[in-house]
Amino acid sequence: MPGDTVEDKVAECRLRELAxxxxxxxxxxxxxxINDASDAAQNAGLLSSRFDMVSPEYSLAMNEIWTSERAIxxxxxxxxxxxxxxxxxxxxxxxxxxxxxxxxWLEQGGYSASEVRDHVExxxxxxLPYVVANYADxxxxxNVVNEVISNTGPEVLHDxxxxxxxxxxxxxxxxxxxxxxxxGARLYVNDYGLLGSSAWNQGKRARMYALLQDLKARGVPxxxxxxxxxxxxxxxxxxxASMPTDLALFAGLSLDIAFTExxxxxxxDLSGLTQAKLDA
Length: 280
Hints:
This protein has helices at residues 6-12, 15-18, 31-35, 40-50, 62-65, 75-86, 104-107, 113-135, 161-166, 170-181, 199-217, 237-251, 275-279, and strands at residues 26-29, 53-56, 66-68, 71-72, 90-98, 140-146, 186-192, 224-232, 256-265. It is α/β, with parallel strands linked by helices. The strands form 2 sheets. Strands 1-2-5-6-7-8-9 form a 7-stranded parallel sheet. Strands 3-4 form a two-stranded antiparallel sheet. Strand 8, helix 12 and strand 9 form a beta-alpha-beta unit. The radius of gyration is 20 Å and the shape is globular.
């Protein structure tokens, strides 16, 4: 009978209606797929009916919208927030600063460190007040920094363009700016490799914990941590088993816990799809 098969149930699933209070189920917002593709209407309908949070893929990345020293293209910003507002969705903006989304004109412009800092401050105090002025009614979460933790240590922070030009304490500085110019938003740090029992995971998790413990102790307005959950049944059983302890570590700092990316590969060993894998 219709509605009895797994496929029927998946087709009718509305995750936004099944989630408990306070848990938001999101998906990616791709500007082209939602506005310009031949099946844009279908894409928009699926996204808005099944999820209650939306996150821009790359359309709000710094290198996409910050076109020159004193110019931001707000067209994609408006389309994203208008979509979220129209469908009563929370907006998670990723990311305010990320070392892989730097405008070429800034990274290759030969600016001094103080000039880079001035430019970034202008960007934040221009973008965030624009969002507040036009979309204060849309619930907002910012990934203020993304992937800033070193993969190897002993330094806590990744030796990126941002650290080199904004200084060792740029994370605290940026969170302060974000709080100042969007006081109604929830502010997150986001990274990968924080879950798991391997020595590499443990090291990166310890560095992230050290950063957040320091920020919280100094009263820096960081509200939460976002985990990138790239998992696979065969390869990450230990990671899944360690999650309760790993997450509790950061919850102990009174931080919101979020999975900002979540994908679970079930056939990465290429042995075929089985009922056992589906059950797992």
